[in-house]
């Protein structure tokens, strides 16, 4: 009989998922302590007391494992940012929450975040990316997360909150770049919010302040005064 409810996972599937999660968790720990160069299937097998051949049943290569680490970060980011962007709240609150949620997601698991941006693309990889269509890009977890920012800019323009002259994709890139930069600063410099002249500021206060500054930069420009001082 057909059912709208998903079938309960079998014990075999649950075991497989558990092992897969253990492999990813160990890979993240290893990446955290030694970086990408210190991660290998052999050492990973020793870490979780499995044979290398057992790990290859889940991941065909180290590169495939790294890609999974990256994708799983963007899937988590997508889930959290999508949740705040779709919430039934004031637009300004949702817009700021997209930035604060991004930074919170990145800093909660800093080494996983580092893994998501660990590799420098080769010229061949860059060539492939440049020829990737928009539809193919937004079908990926990374692309879907970025599309939320594009939609946010377009919504702000439709509401008359953001400058209509902004190009939505470029504006979304700027939001991402500022969020990414702050996340990395807070990962590598945890005392950033405590430095003078505001040594008692919390992480949350500082990130919220940053989000507000970013959104103000996208706002409709104030009408310039006339030369005689009147409007």
TrEMBL record:
<keyword id="KW-0804">Transcription</keyword>
<dbReference type="InterPro" id="IPR001647">
    <property type="entry name" value="HTH_TetR"/>
</dbReference>
<feature type="domain" description="HTH tetR-type">
    <location>
        <begin position="17"/>
        <end position="77"/>
    </location>
</feature>
<dbReference type="InterPro" id="IPR036271">
    <property type="entry name" value="Tet_transcr_reg_TetR-rel_C_sf"/>
</dbReference>
<dbReference type="Pfam" id="PF00440">
    <property type="entry name" value="TetR_N"/>
</dbReference>
<protein>
    <submittedName>
        <fullName>TetR family transcriptional regulator</fullName>
    </submittedName>
</protein>
<dbReference type="InterPro" id="IPR050109">
    <property type="entry name" value="HTH-type_TetR-like_transc_reg"/>
</dbReference>
<dbReference type="GO" id="GO:0003700">
    <property type="term" value="F:DNA-binding transcription factor activity"/>
</dbReference>
<feature type="DNA-binding region" description="H-T-H motif">
    <location>
        <begin position="40"/>
        <end position="59"/>
    </location>
</feature>
<dbReference type="InterPro" id="IPR009057">
    <property type="entry name" value="Homeodomain-like_sf"/>
</dbReference>
<keyword id="KW-0805">Transcription regulation</keyword>
<dbReference type="Pfam" id="PF13305">
    <property type="entry name" value="TetR_C_33"/>
</dbReference>
<dbReference type="InterPro" id="IPR025996">
    <property type="entry name" value="MT1864/Rv1816-like_C"/>
</dbReference>
<keyword id="KW-0238">DNA-binding</keyword>
<dbReference type="GO" id="GO:0000976">
    <property type="term" value="F:transcription cis-regulatory region binding"/>
</dbReference>
């Amino acid at each position: 009989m057909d059912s709208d409810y998903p079938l309960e996972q079998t014990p075999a599937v649950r075991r497989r998922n558990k092992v897969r999660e253990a492999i990813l968790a160990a890979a993240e720990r290893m990446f955290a302590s030694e970086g990408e160069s210190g991660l290998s299937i052999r050492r990973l097998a020793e870490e979780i007391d499995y044979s290398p051949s057992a790990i290859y049943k889940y991941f065909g290569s180290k590169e495939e494992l790294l890609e999974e680490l990256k994708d799983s970060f963007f899937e988590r980011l997508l889930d959290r940012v999508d949740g705040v962007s779709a919430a039934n709240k004031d637009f300004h609150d949702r817009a700021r929450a997209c930035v604060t949620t991004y930074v919170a997601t990145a800093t909660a698991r800093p080494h996983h975040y580092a893994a998501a941006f660990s590799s420098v693309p080769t010229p061949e990889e860059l060539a492939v990316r440049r020829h990737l269509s928009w539809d193919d890009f937004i079908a990926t977890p990374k692309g879907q997360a970025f599309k939320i920012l594009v939609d946010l800019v377009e919504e702000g323009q439709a509401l008359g909150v953001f400058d209509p002259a902004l190009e939505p994709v470029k504006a979304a890139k700027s939001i991402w770049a500022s969020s990414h930069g702050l996340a990395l600063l807070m990962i590598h410099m945890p005392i950033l919010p405590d430095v003078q002249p505001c040594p008692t500021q919390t992480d949350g206060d500082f990130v919220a302040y940053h989000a507000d500054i970013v959104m103000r930069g996208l706002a409709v420009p104030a009408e310039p005064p006339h030369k005689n001082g009147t409007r």
